[in-house]
Design goal:
The protein is 5% helix and 61% strand. By secondary structure, the protein is mainly beta. The chain has a single domain (2-218), classed as Outer membrane phospholipase (ompla), Chain C (Beta Barrel). The chain is globular and about 45 Å long. The model has no long low-confidence stretch (mean pLDDT 96). This is Outer membrane protein. Belongs to the nucleoside-specific channel-forming outer membrane porin (Tsx) (TC 1.B.10) family.
């Protein structure tokens, strides 16, 4: 459940309509000798109608990232696709993002830090074309307190040199998007988490938008 701050909801009420919403998510990943894959699919506002008022309508969001290892160098070919839609057939709003670039994996005892630098292409309702660059990372650290297992994670994306047409509706030529999370691995199959979600000059607005995400995950 994403609980936007009241300031965010109020300031976005005329344009991007950041209302609180619940969502169902299917998430997964895999590691191979040649690389790694990760992805999720979200069904947002699943309890509302497809054409409810802006901010309350059903939405569908996916993300897929792939890292193809370049031998034993630690470098990898980074490929990333993201899309969000206002209806299954994109009748209302869509925003697709494709990234291609290079990444690097730093891993150690209980921690990981995986930065990347990529070129971006956008296919959106209001703009389609090359759209600058993204410098980002995923990072995490796993630890125990007594017999309980926890992890702290962060994903962050800094966009810059965005196309002028896109920048006009998103606060300028650069912006930031991400989340910091604390996860409690309560059992081998059950995880609970709290995330601080943030975006600045992003998501259709020219100011900071933030909120808290409350999650319960079942691991198959």
């Amino acid at each position: 459940y994403l609980d936007w701050t009241s300031d965010t909801t109020e300031k976005t009420s005329k344009k991007s309509h950041k209302d609180d919403f619940g969502y169902l998510e299917l998430e997964g990943g895999a590691n191979f000798s040649w690389g790694e894959m990760y992805g999720f699919f979200d069904w947002e506002n699943f309890y509302n109608g497809r054409h409810a008022k802006p901010g309350s309508e059903q939405r569908y969001t996916f993300k897929n990232t792939n890292r193809i290892y370049l031998g034993d160098t630690g470098l990898n070919l980074y490929l990333h696709a993201y899309g969000t839609y206002g209806s299954p057939h994109r009748a209302n709003f869509h925003d697709d993002m494709f990234l291609y670039g290079l990444g690097y994996n730093f891993t150690g005892n209980g921690y990981w830090f995986k930065p990347f630098f990529a070129k971006r292409y956008t296919d959106q309702t209001y703009y389609t074309g090359d759209n600058g660059y993204v410098l980002g990372w995923v990072a995490g650290y796993s630890f125990s307190l007594g017999s309980e297992k926890f992890s702290v994670t962060n994903w962050n994306e800094y966009e810059f040199d965005r196309d002028a047409s896109y920048a006009a509706g998103n606060g300028g030529k650069d912006g930031i998007n991400g989340a910091v999370a604390l996860w409690w691995n309560a059992t081998p199959h059950l995880t609970a988490g709290v995330q601080y979600r943030y975006a600045d000059n992003k998501l259709g607005e020219s100011f900071l938008q933030d909120g808290i995400i409350y999650s319960i995950k079942y691991l198959f």
